[in-house]
């Protein structure tokens, strides 16, 4: 043996001399327990304890029941004495009759040591496998939970967006009939503002579910943060000082400015709350970072186990917020992307769950560094893109004309409120409207009036025949038909696994008159 195993002998010394010699010849180190029979295993330091003939066990109580597993050999111990070890794991106890020759006792000691070591090794491996399995099960359960919540959030947001078309559209139409100086105009404007905030909430839900619609334009994070500084100062507690270090320069990412503003506001508000109790500072920074695939995977796999599309290696534009608050332990860190989770007050909103959905929709990822009592750093990274100055100028152009058209529009939707308000919008643009409540009606109406219809607007989700099926049927009747699909979901989600070749455009609900006008203007021309 390379490492001499220690055998503790608790035997009558009359039986010990030959036993000790043979044990030492087999490479064991032998010691005698100094003070008679021990009360517990914890009192004994050795790899195996050997009890032999002549040992008085009458005073032993609860031997080993509260101790660790230790190989025991009972040589010539009476059944009454052996029963004292009932509390131990039976695999650690070997009983040998008192008339067993010493040389066989030594062999049994060696065999029992090997057996116990093997069992212990197997148990450790089984424990390790069990812990790994439990860890994998927790990951799968978390992924399933997040997926289920995502489906629920997406479905609610879709139906909510349908309702908002009626609310926002009617309010928009009513306001256009009012004098701008009337009190009713201001109240209707407040309704529209509230509806837009409700639309933002629906977009957060879609972002959380991974189905958010993003209007991607070239964005400079330095400019975006700079534009928000006044608003951020209001959001930050008066007891907190914010320091800004904007290093991106002319580097751009492609993103939805509204959604990225939401990320910035959310992270800075969280950081402010983390240090507001005792006062302190938060540090806001932007910059460029080269990210290896290993770095991306180390960040993404920990906090986004439901996302199967890993961000690629490359150059990233980042926005980060560092606070010196309480920090987070692993138990809190595991929950921060759960909807409505907070360490402050309950029911605050989707919070970091929406942030994660937005970042994922922009093909980015999140890096988090935190320790209890050492603060937290959130770094959000978006792929950097090369953008020409002309592209930036074009992205900032917003048309504000009062374009009008003419002709017939075929509108199909199973929500009456959507049919009513959209028909009114179209009428004010100069169009006449033909309406249908499902795909079959839309096709029948298109067959009758194909030569008179300038454009078709189809809701994606309708009974009997959905909008996508109706689109393909209409295109088979007239391959030049101009068809627009509309849904509470975004185009990317609607088009997954579906051939939409020949689709003229897509408009997401809820929409107002100006966005519908712009869609039709691009489609039908000036």
Give the topology:
Layout: E1 6-10, H1 16-25, E2 29-32, E3 48-51, E4 72-75, H2 79-82, E5 93-96, H3 102-176, H4 183-208, E6 217-219, H5 221-235, E7 240-246, E8 252-255, H6 257-275, E9 280-291, H7 293-303, E10 314-323, H8 330-333, H9 352-361, E11 365-370, E12 376-385, H10 389-396, E13 407-412, H11 416-428, E14 431-436, H12 439-449, E15 453-459, H13 467-477, E16 483-487, H14 491-494, E17 505-508, H15 513-524
Parallel strand pairs: 1-2, 1-3, 3-4, 4-5, 7-9, 13-14, 13-15, 15-16, 16-17
Antiparallel strand pairs: 6-8, 8-12, 9-10, 10-12, 11-12
Helix pairs in contact: 1-3, 3-4, 3-11, 4-9, 5-6, 6-9, 12-13
Describe it:
With 526 residues, the chain is α/β, with parallel strands linked by helices. The protein is built from 15 helices and 17 strands. 44% of the residues lie in helices and 19% in strands. The strands form 3 sheets. Strands 6, 7, 8, 9, 10, 11 and 12 form a 7-stranded mixed beta sheet that branches. A 5-stranded parallel beta sheet has the order 2-1-3-4-5, with helices on one face. The protein has a 5-stranded parallel beta sheet with strand order 14-13-15-16-17, sandwiched between helices. The protein starts with 5 loop residues before the first strand and ends with a helix. About 3% of the residues have low confidence.
